[in-house]
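User: Please fill in residues for this 87-position structure.
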């Protein structure tokens, strides 16, 4: 799967108008081959679960999902609170 430049612009511009703190994406580079068919990851970071709820219903997110989701074969979504272990 490739994101066209116009899709990247739409995605990035939608981020600036919602409660998202950070957004990262990448492709699988593991040598262990345990990806179970998943090749890309998109990680969004929020301050709170309220921010997640606001983002999910945000028009920019809904519009982008309508364009992006049909291009995907399958999706896994995780909502989690990270546990940080400082070394």
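Assistant: Residues filled in for all 87 positions:
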């Amino acid at each position: 799967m490739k994101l066209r430049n116009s899709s990247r612009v739409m995605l990035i511009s939608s981020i600036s108008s919602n409660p998202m703190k950070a957004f990262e994406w990448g492709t699988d580079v593991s040598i262990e081959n345990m990806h179970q068919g998943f090749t890309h990851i998109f990680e969004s970071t929020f301050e709170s679960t309220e921010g997640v709820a606001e983002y999910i219903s945000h028009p920019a997110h809904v519009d982008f999902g309508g364009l992006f989701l049909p291009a995907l074969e399958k999706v896994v979504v995780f909502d989690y609170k990270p546990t940080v272990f400082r070394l």
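For context: The radius of gyration is 14 Å.
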